[in-house]
Amino acid sequence: MEHEEVKTFLGLEENIKGPFDIVILPIPYEMTTSYREGTEFGPKACIDASSQVELYDKKMEVDLPCGFKIHTSKPWNNEVPNLKEALSSISKFCTPWMDGKQFPIILGGEHGLLFPLIEAVKIHPRINQELERLTIVQIDAHADLRDELNGERFSHGTVIRRVLDAGVGNVIQIGVRTYSSEEEEIIRNDERVNTWFARDLININHNLSDWDLMIEEIKNIEGPIWLTFDVDGLDGSLVPATGTPVPGGLSYWGSIEIIESLFSAKGAEIIGADINEISTSQGTNLTEFSAALIATKILACHIANNISK
Question: Domain holding 47: CATH number?
């Protein structure tokens, strides 16, 4: 794919010279799609849509970027011969931005990109090659805990299994509502995995609010955190063009509460985030706009935390 000149996230004017506070990394990765294709076009579509997002957030008194230096990187070059080379190339592309000197926000691309991201984040000073220190907070309709999908072990549907194999200490899953018996067994028996199912979070008939319990848990996370936000974690009505839109998902405002609560966790440090499975909507542009809003909220929460320090 030939790369045209990169538009900037939120349409902001950017200085090409670093150092930067926040870097936006577009990764148009698509190699193991199992249903609807199009995620390779998602990062660009998200950046295009972001130019229509308001720059004001209630957490700040002034418009974004609030004096912080944001850099929108050229996209990862997806002209690679095979899956193995693609994963290696993504890791190399991201590694220079994982040293803790800037906050990386990755726009994808299918969810399989998480594995090379986590390989790259090993250099972060809070990780220091010891992935058991890391907690991944995963917003997703799917558990992604299969050992293989369509014969492939490094797939968008296996990526959480692979990062656990790589040594990640804990995964908190939020919004899961479609999974296999193989994945349910792991959810039940692997102490590193804590899954909050969408049916329990949204069921208003519960006497004890699972939603409140989930929010309380993420407010009490400690240590380094990576946030991986698969947009199909949102209800399918909000992301109709994503690869596998699923009904019964999180609302927009519910997702905002999760993000804000995560960034308010006093003992935690969110060291980066990815928003993945973005694709392009016909007519409404709703999927990419929803993704742009989520990415902007993550950026705003990171800036708010650093303004308050």
Answer: 3.40.800.10
